[in-house]
Amino acid sequence: MFLIEKRKKAGLTQTEVASKLKRYQSFVASVETGQRKLDVVQLIAFAEAIGFDPRDAIKRMMATKDD
Description:
Radius of gyration: 11 Å
Number of helices: 5
Mean pLDDT: 94
Distance between the termini: 14 Å
GO molecular function: DNA binding
Strand content: under 5%
Number of domains: 1
Pfam family, one: HTH_31
Largest sheet: none
CATH architecture: Orthogonal Bundle
Helix content: 55-70%
Protein name: Helix-turn-helix transcriptional regulator
Low-confidence stretches: none
Order of helices and strands: HHHHH
CATH superfamily: lambda repressor-like DNA-binding domains
Number of strands: 0
């Protein structure tokens, strides 16, 4: 949900993010729904495409890892 929140806050569609990443919209959708996991390099690419600090995503994951 973090990526969806950040993408929507940036006013971007999945298609726009996919274009920035040079990927298909379905790739972005599968990441946002949790069907596909990201490695660190991909997380940084998403952060650059959407415009957020990737450390925020890592902090959020660490805060919820026990849930």
